[in-house]
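User: I need a structural model of DUF4856 domain-containing protein from Butyricimonas hominis for a docking pre-check later this week. Nothing fancy, just the predicted structure tokens so I can convert them on my end. Input:
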Amino acid sequence: MNTINRLSMLFLAGSLFAACSSEDQLIPSHFDVNVFAASGQDSVLQHNFFESVGSYLLFKDTLSREVVGIDKDGNTLYHYETVDIGYSLTGLSNNRYSYKYLQTLEDKKAAAEFLENRIMPAMREDIRPYSVLAVEQTEESVLKWGEWNKSNIDFFAGYRCMAISLKGIAQMDEAQQVQLAERLLAGIVTQKITSLGIRDLGAFYENSDKYYGELRRDYPEVKDEKEVGFLSSGSYLFPDRQTDLKDYLNAYFSVTEEEFLQKYKDYLVICIKYNLLKDLIKQVGYTVER
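Assistant: Understood. Predicted structure tokens for DUF4856 domain-containing protein:
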């Protein structure tokens, strides 16, 4: 073997040794670990929920805690991964969210049962949230004019997680749980429908399109706004599209379908718009019979 070949083989062996040595120093990424999966003392409850509805159930916004080192004083340093419900594919919400957690096993069991039986069945499987954070209270802080304005909210639908406030759920009787479920679903569906564009809502709007935001005095032939499909109207202006949609959504979740159609049976356009809204709610994946 000549000198050049020997040098080449030594160089190759050295490169392989260096490569193996470098691989030995690699730190696992843990990307193969599903931090949403059930673990800890609530794992059986969480696992059963996932098997039943296909969404992960969380009782804290902390997904994982990993030791990353020790500081100069000897204290252990941790890396925390949390659910940021303000996260979206296009960025982060400027709002802040904090929680008061459910404390007892009784509360957690009641929350899981409530969500499994009263909330998730109203959502088509393909639109159910990836995970549900069941808490006692969700506080939203909104920055306005340089100050943080805080308020408690029923729910927040984020990209990876939907947080739902269930304060006192274990102490609620049947009627109270029904009322809470109706309020939550009304909020969730209303948020979804009002976020739709004109392409999806066009059929609903076209029935009254001529009159949106117009002066009533310009249409003296319209004596009653209900004749042209409005549930309410000001004295001078017909409602705009957003107000009209909001009025119908409020009505949809306030009374039964039978009550609504009986009340407005003499107003064809109103009945048409109500049925279009009902069909649209089903199309986007919700089953909320009235």
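Before docking, keep this in mind: The first strand starts at residue 56 and ends at 58.
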